[in-house]
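User: tokens in, sequence out, please.
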């Protein structure tokens, strides 16, 4: 006995074209982001780490939390934090509640670099919004 596909499971040629166009637009944004990070003297992963720390509710993260957000192993997140520390962008400080745990804090230099990067990213996303909105509407 074969199971019938629901109408929403059946994709048209236009659906495939739309999905490909969305993926291409997202990839173009990622390329923009990678170039912007490199232009600021950061790797894309370093930029992503700074953004993740800044976006955290208390603007601090543990190594484990950073690893989870970046989808990397804790030892890789620790090495990333070390490199950011060497660049003067991140400081490790004991957690206020549990002094055994270290938390990552952005320095003022990181805040400045991230501000500049985020302004350009926000502008680029605003530029892409009409295209992404139109493409997403096609999938409804």
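Assistant: Sequence out:
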């Amino acid at each position: 006995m074969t199971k019938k596909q629901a109408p929403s499971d059946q994709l048209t040629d236009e659906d495939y074209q739309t999905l490909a166009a969305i993926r291409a637009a997202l990839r173009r944004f990622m390329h923009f982001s990678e170039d912007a990070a490199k232009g600021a003297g950061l790797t894309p992963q370093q930029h992503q780490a700074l953004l993740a720390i800044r976006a955290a509710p208390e603007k601090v993260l543990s190594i484990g939390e950073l690893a989870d957000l970046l989808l990397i192993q804790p030892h890789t997140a620790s090495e990333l934090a070390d490199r950011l520390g060497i660049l003067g962008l991140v400081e490790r400080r004991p957690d206020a509640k549990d002094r055994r745990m270290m938390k990552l804090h952005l320095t003022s230099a990181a805040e400045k670099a991230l501000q500049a990067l985020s302004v350009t990213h926000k502008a680029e996303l605003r530029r892409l919004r009409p295209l992404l909105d139109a493409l997403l509407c096609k999938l409804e």
